[in-house]
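Morning!

As promised:
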Amino acid sequence: MSVPLSQMWTVATYVLGQKLRGRKRYPLVLMLEPLFRCNLACAGCGKIQYPAHVLKKHLSVEQCLAAVEECGAPMVSIPGGEPLMYPDIGRLVRELVARRKYVYLCTNAILLKQKLEEGLFQPSKYLSFSVHMDGLREEHDEAVCRVGVFDDAVEGIREALRRGFRVTTNTTLFDGADPHRMRKFFDAMMDLGVEGMMVSPGYSYSKAPDQEHFLRRQRAHELFSTMLASPKKRWRFNQSPLFLQFLMGRRDFECTPWGNPTYNMFGWQRPCYLLQEGYAATFEELLETTRWEQYGRRSGNDKCRDCMVHCGHEPSAVDATFGSWRGFRDSVVATVTGRF
Amino acid sequence: MSDEDRSLEGWAPEITDSATLAEVIDRAFDYRGDVTLVLADGRQLVGYLFNRNADVSEPFVQMFERGGDDPATIPYARIRAIRFTGKDTAAGNSFAAWLRLRQAAKADAGG
């Protein structure tokens, strides 16, 4: 079990509370992007492609905290851009921890060791460094288009663990990923001592013919089935076991994009973390005026047909866990046995 | 070069009616570079157009002007022309382009 009991309890009581109130759409994890600037330029990343004057901007801590209060989600993920380049990241994290939000600081970890040595952060059960790792050295450095980043990240992870911080990894897999190499990667991350791992297929929307879309989804199922069919007991995943079963093709979930709402300098992003189809001025406006029926696989929207990413489907899995005794039982069984 | 890699950089479309204006605004919204808005009073605003909403009684766009701090909100009705004047920061950086590059690199390494 990789998620602390206190975090599990917080999430469970929060979700059950939403259900008791009859709230159909509720946020689970706020994706808070204080800036778009990054010290990597990974090919295929759509988050950093902005004019220089936009990349120089960032949200104030007060804007971030107002969004956190407005949203009300129990967990806050801070991606970007590279959040360790945000000038007020230390203060932002302190404020969020003081509000008892579970924070996942998503970083490439290039600056992690330096920031830890500067004393920017204090260990807390509310704070996890979620380090971007797309595989072993060769695969990761290729994915981020720079040699040496894997080693920097490992050094940052070691330093964070040495200082008593929670550390998880966050892995995006694309077409062509080798499941056997990934199994070695899981071993390597467990050897390092991380608390848990998160995996998700990359978002690969393109205007390709339907057959190709189908194969992409099918290939993702095959990849995750091969990787996770006989999971080692020592592997720990920092995500819902039902979501992993979904990736393996053993369950089907519809996307719940409001579960991981995104806030950045443009406002509340419609409809999700990956698609940018407009912005709402308030979280309420996002919930009330987004045409949710136009998104998700069943909508027939080309952009959603192949999507299986965690920001849309992990909240669905968590909702399913607490939505029925069967979902709860299946989650408990998978968690206890370590099998998916 | 695929359709999604083709850039609108330098495009200066003629706007002939309101439908065309909405179409051009949609293209400007998708564009990952600065645009120049020519307003009804002759003023020109240069910046990054990050939002548009045509589902309200007075449709509007929002942009971060180059050199400005806070976003500006401009009604559709005040826009006379849009020019795609800034560098397209997404050109050649699509996911499809990335896959092609990776495949080519692997083919080189194998060959």
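The CA atoms of residues 1 and 335 of chain A lie 6 Å apart.

Hope this helps with the figure draft.
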